[in-house]
Request: fold
Amino acid sequence: MKMQWRIVTLVALLLGMLFALNLVRGLVFERQQRAQEVRAEIAQFSAGEQTVKGPFLVLPLTETVATLIEKQTPEGKISEWQQTQNQRNIILSPEQFAANGRLAVESLKRGIFEAPIYRSDLILSGKFALPARSDFERTTSSSREKISTQWGQPYLTLSLSDVRGIQNLHGTLAGTSMTFAPGTAGAMGSGVHAPITLSEAAHSVDFKLNLKLGGTTQLLIEPIGKESHVALSGNWPHPSFSGNFAPVERSVTAQGFTARWQTSQLATGGSNTNAKCGESACPSASLGLRLIDPVDRYVLNERTLKYAELFVLVLFGAVFLMSVMRKIAIHPVQYALVGAALALFFLLTLSLSEHLGFNKAYWIAASASTLLLGYYVSFVLAAWQRGVGFAVVLAALYGLLFGILQSEDMALLMGSLTLFGLLSGVMVLTRKLDWQGLSAPTTPTFKAE
Reply:
């Protein structure tokens, strides 16, 4: 076979390999989507990601406005009072707010998939400043308008993303126990509320809530106070601190984590008084953590496949150079079998990682691929020494790829140095090769027994 046709055939085989690798990529994406669906299913029958917003003090009021209007009647002009009513909530944020919590985390499995769920013991405490109610009552100097204000039953409200996670909740306001009911009485999104009694002579009131809350993957707390202090700890060794604020102190060990946040109203952009407060109008800054898996098998499989084309190209090139330099004819079917074995390495890594974890799966697949290809190439290249040499090179490449996967920050540098080293090796090995005068390769005489 002429050199030109050998190269054309090799390129065609490489294109076929790209198609096969894309099929494996599609399978990785499909399994990743399935894992996300299972996490969503786990959240559906337990509780989802939680965001704790509150507590807020809600002062409902009804404003009646009477306006004197004139009407034209058959008897002449008459004057009468026309009344309109406007209901609104004055929502007070705490002057001081503190949240302390401990998370007990475990992994809940469904088949081969799993998701981290937690049970948290939260203590929410602080103090509300109580402005005079007259500050919120509108007045008018017009003789044609009268405004009267009627205050409703005040209540304390706490908003939660998923109320199914509430396992226990009790609290006190000014030393008096509160009884909570479902819903936030229209003040904001899903949550709970408790009717309260406030003394008009009081200028401030303390509160304390003990909340046992379950959830999945994430816990966020909104720092709603003029001054807010939040401290969280747990037994999960891989927290990812999220939200709008980083912890001022953190400690992460193999046994768990502790973290502390401190914010002020200047940073959160909130207000102590929210005349209108819904899910979007209330303070939306948050802080907290996600429970992540640092060795996500699908992410690592996806990263492995990013190097697949380069991996196949290098090994195909190695076999091609050895055949040219040793003048050995290699049939396209033999190239195709080598490529199929390489593609199966990535498929084996994916399937085994779902049961054994990524690291074990990678090395089992790499060992199987190295032994198989080393054995096969020794017959293709007509010498067991060449097969052993090929296996050594392949094992080194698998080891190098694993190192790149484990050192994400150094991946680009390691990859660049590897490419430079491979190119240097090819240039040194072929420096005396007469590409123009290559003779037709001979048929291998080595036979398998």
In short: The chain has eight helices and 18 strands. The radius of gyration is 35 Å. Residues 3-36+297-429 form one domain.
